[in-house]
Amino acid sequence: MDIEERREIVSRFLRRCVTYADASIERKKSRGEDSSDISNWENYRQFTSFSASEVESGELDTWLEDGSYHSEPSSEVPLSDNRVWLKLEEMSHEQRRDWLASLLMPRPISLVATRSIQGIHNLAPMSSIGVVSNSPPMITISLSKERGGKERDTLVNLRDQGEESSCMVYILPATLESAKNVQLTSTKIPITESEWDLIDEEIIIENSMPILSSAMYAMHCKLMEIHPLPGGSSASLAILKVESIITSNNLTPSRNPLKLMQIDFNKLGPSSNENDWNFEVNY
Fold this sequence. Notes:
alpha+beta; 2 domains; four-stranded antiparallel β-sheet; about 280 residues
């Protein structure tokens, strides 16, 4: 049996354990069983899912070989020798983009909802989002200009609405529907039109904020500040305070389904594992 077959067998077993754990958690919740027991199952589910991802990535292939195994995955390309310093200023824009993407992706891709001063609802895909503070809870979004120099509608709307203006950040499940929504909402349309009209979902207004029903989570945020990035960058950094997290009653931080990830500049999927599905986006 070759290593690919062994990896597939172990992966299938672990994924079935995850499926069984999901069903067990739902049964225990419906019966009103002890919360500590449910929490243990959720922790087991999370660990098993993570283990399956590690096996599928090939990082633990030495564990599947006959004989002794290495307790820690080894780095295939260490910096101990054969180093080279690559100067980013000597690269083209595409080369810089590809290198940075390869180092810092995959990362979650989200849809961000804002509203113009004319009342038009905007929806745009973003992946340059990061947590910068837990207390107070703050995130940042990097908003670059388009190639023609046009500012993103998201940036225009936030700046026009001013400090304390609201937006929604939607965390997407790793589904083909979500990937298609990213593609559709990246379409260039006038600011007087709404990207919500491009997707097959009705906009739901709750507490004066739009809800994307296919999202796993949403973060209701308020604008704190906008800063142009230095060094001649065409991007601006929006600093947002997270006011609320909107989630299903069935989801917790310890039970976190697969998110849709940006694998590289124009590819989406659940992970960078070559055995997983992926969806190519034309921005």
